[in-house]
What we know:
Blueprint: H1 2-9, H2 19-30, H3 62-80, E1 83-89, E2 107-113, E3 118-124, E4 134-137, E5 146-147, E6 151-155, E7 163-167, E8 173-175, E9 177-181, E10 185-189, E11 197-204, E12 210-218, E13 223-224, E14 226-228, E15 233-234, E16 236-241, E17 247-251, E18 264-269, E19 271-272, E20 282-284, E21 287-289
Parallel strand pairs: 5-12
Antiparallel strand pairs: 1-3, 2-3, 4-6, 6-10, 7-8, 7-11, 9-10, 11-12, 13-19, 14-15, 16-17, 16-18, 20-21
Amino acid sequence: MDQLAGTLSLDNPADGANLPRSAAYWFTYFVDHQHGDVWNGVTFGTNAPQKDFPKAWQWKNAYHAFEHALVAYITAQQIRQAAFPLYFVFTQEVPVNSVSPFYLRAEVDHIETAGANLRKVTFIGSANYDPPLCAVSAASFLPTPLASSSAGTVFGNNFANASVSVTDQAGVPRPAIVIGSTATQVNFVLPAQLASGPATITVTTQSGTPVSAKTTIAPVSPAVFQSDAGTATVAANIIRVRSGGAHSVEPIASGISFGAATDQLFLAIYGSGIRGASTVTATLRGHDVPVLYAGPQGIAGLD
């Protein structure tokens, strides 16, 4: 879907409204960060890669992967309003203004001869290209509603050292806690006790320019962090309590050792948007497991 959004947004920036989160989801979950290439698919809900299916087959081949990368490259350069070269093979000379890849409406800066029929065409991204922003959960990067006091992310441009505010249905803007920002992304914690319903998240850049993204506020919107997006491993620790009362905290990245029969093991999973729930349930391979605690962890936005 990010290739479709990217292709359409070359003609109409409004069609790229979902592109930042779809691209982030693609690179986080569809790309095999260990062995390279792209998974055939991921499982809804867990985001785990579908390893029983081949990465390449009749339709999903190297040509398709190259096309996907090409569309992403063109779209990214357009968003950055940067010049970018593409190579074309022409059997005869063509008017400069007739050259355009896909649906791109960009100005041709110049054309160079790179071979007998090969031409290097340099385009300049449109200065009028201003795709809408989008807000997602900072835990899952999924397009879900955001809960009060949860961690959120907005993707855009010129976000280094930006500030964030949230305006809910009551119409009063309230500051959010910024926990990190880069040129293209700002992570923040939403204010507490926001009214449920439509809301606007406003990011004010360091230069003082405000830009906005639409979202929906919900009382609860659970999302889970992952420690390894390539394997869809949840961000969690095992708390081991031994028979004598001694305990230890252990990562789960390399698996869980159940140890001695007298050991008690507690799984602590890290997420966001959970603390507003009156009850929380959990299943493990279809079996209900007791939830002893679900709520704040002492760090802003973390449950």
